[in-house]
């Protein structure tokens, strides 16, 4: 089934309809579509030296895979999120995404690059986050492109993985059948090879009575949320998708403690 997302406190207000944006249900698929609202890429939302955060590099020996670990400076238990980048790896924007999740109150780990056919490695990293001294024990995954593919495969894990957010992830019927975590799926309307997989994947999720949310953002290309790529970045859909992702993670992992 499709579950409508709760509104997050402090989330951006809906943008009024205009010639460059619309939000409609897309026919029988029941998808939420958002128009382009394309704008130039911007600088980091959270600075690399933000004094509210503890930020460190972790190694594969520590965490199963190398990456950037960020969380608030106050030592407290937090829900954890694993960030899986696209094929270009942990770019400045993906590092910013990791810091933004930390400011939102999560224990966030952005991996250097999603390993090829190494879901066992990622499962070790999920376990690392679940057992971290500052973790509440519940873990979510946020994946982009190739990392979105990996996130959908990880959805078959049982606890501690409870939520998966995937941007342009190509899911299969087998992955839909195996999914145990709740899913939130974001798709760029112009990513033709990816969007072609939506009907079969959605039908398999519905057939298996899985819990998921599915959003299609019309008029934008793959990478619409990536502020490092001015040729594809679309500010308003990116902000809308971000608000939805944070609300979804909070609803599934529990409210994150404030970062000051």
From TrEMBL:
GO MF annotation, one: hydrolase activity
Record key words, sorted: Hydrolase
Source taxon at top rank: Bacteria
Protein name: Dienelactone hydrolase family protein
Domain Dienelactone hydrolase, first and last residues per copy: 117-251
Transmembrane segments: none
The organism of origin for this protein: Methylopila musalis
A Pfam family recorded for this sequence: DLH
Enzyme Commission code: 3.1.-.-
